[in-house]
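Reopening this one. Same input as before:
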Amino acid sequence: MNPIPDFESGERWLVESCLKERYGKIVATQAADVELQLAPGDAQLTACPTLYWEERGAAFVVVKAGEGRWRGMFFYPAEPDCEQYGAGRSEYDDLAECVIALLRAQADHEKQRLGVGSGKTALDLARGKEAP
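Same output, byte for byte:
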């Protein structure tokens, strides 16, 4: 089996552009490798190129699982159990869709962790009030 090629410069640019749009600033990504079981039942782990970044207390990875195959997850390194959360699907065929789904899933999770419900304003949160 051929090794999975590293992220191309255009792929990395796309990820970093999504991050700049989401956070309003440049967010540095780090190249890494992870070993994954690419298909259910595979006994073999495959080294996959990965982009890693941290922002707002969360750590993110986007994994290149093959040509046109992407996986994303996030976790909170400061939490003792370090539970991992996905982006909604196990795999994407579009890198932008994978990154956007990952960022949305984490934003939704962050709101839930902070107890932000529909209808709450910043003033409500500061006062500890529930939404009407």
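So the earlier flakiness isn't reproducible anymore. For the record, The first strand starts at residue 30 and ends at 36.
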